[in-house]
Amino acid sequence: MCSGTARPATARQPLDLGALSSFCVAISLVSLVAYVVNFLAHDRMPPRSISTLSVALATGVLALLTCGLRRARRVLIMICCGFTVLSVDRFAHSAPMDHAAMAFLLAASVYAVPAWPEMKVVLSGGSASAMVERQEHHAGLLAGELHDEVLQLLALTCRRLDAARALDDPGALRAAMEDASRTLDEQAGTLRRIIATVSPAAVQGLGLAESVTSLAGQIAAENGLVVDVDVQGDRPHACAGENGVNLAVYRVAQEALTNVVKHADARRITVALTCRDEGISLTVTDDGRGLGPNPPRATEGYGMQGMRWRCEAYGGTFSARTADTTGTVVRAVFPLRNCRKTRAS
């Protein structure tokens, strides 16, 4: 068991890292603007060496904090090297050093194009704190569901048994016990559903394709919907190194289907899952009411934000739009660069 004082300290760690990351991003942008303005003003402002050194230090710290985003880290390292050379060149005034700095910055500019999805995660700055906030929100939802469904019915069952026992009537006690047995069976199913929602072991046991298919069948049976699943690709069973991506894909599918049930008023859903070596793509389409014309991202709820964050956390892309005819199309793409490198090695 964790002590009561350990939890707040553990929760503060990602918040502190998120604040440090946001601070470094702010320092980098401000220093870069100051450097450009000073360069255009022909050194009429304070020395550019302060700006170059600030950018180098801030991007270096960001590169150290950027875990799991390899392309973004490479861009930050190249920017750090370029501005480090520029800061040294303010004292040496060497043409080769100018050329080296420009080479680093040019390479960073070119490499930033394929690394842009990961760079967006870095520039967001508050990803860690946003992650903790979403986790707290979902923990609150889980606690409310346990309290409202499981705890309340168990307490009611206990009172019924106590009342029947106080009557000293074998028939009433037998009826109360039968009712309690039915309630316990129902709540056992509720607990299994909650456990599957929190930790879907099916992703590790069955594989991604089978887990998504099972999830779609469960949604269809519980809500009276028609859910078609189309799985394509030559690798429906994922390797062990992709469990994090598989769980993220499963969570996006779970949230997208839940949103359809809650908000879309749809009758038919189509789930398209494509699993290939270069990546996994998931598309969930329904025939419901849609999102409206050009819905702003500012109005997205926790569910939509959570799906977008899961995609961007793995360097992927996310989109949600109204279909051409009616309904909503949710699409998530997850690259698998890291697992390709693992298999190659």
From TrEMBL:
The keyword Phosphoprotein applies. Keywords: ATP-binding, Kinase, Membrane, Nucleotide-binding, Phosphoprotein, Transferase, Transmembrane, Transmembrane helix, Two-component regulatory system. Pfam families: HATPase_c (PF02518), HisKA_3 (PF07730). Its EC number is 2.7.13.3. The chain crosses the membrane at residues 17-37, 49-68, 75-93. InterPro entries: HATPase_C_sf, HATPase_dom, Sensor_HK_TwoCompSys, Sig_transdc_His_kin_sub3_dim/P. The keyword Signal does not apply. Residues 244-338 form the Histidine kinase/HSP90-like ATPase domain. It comes from the Bacteria. It catalyses: ATP + protein L-histidine = ADP + protein N-phospho-L-histidine. PANTHER family: NITRATE/NITRITE SENSOR PROTEIN NARX-RELATED, NITRATE_NITRITE SENSOR PROTEIN NARQ. This is histidine kinase. It comes from Streptomyces blastmyceticus.
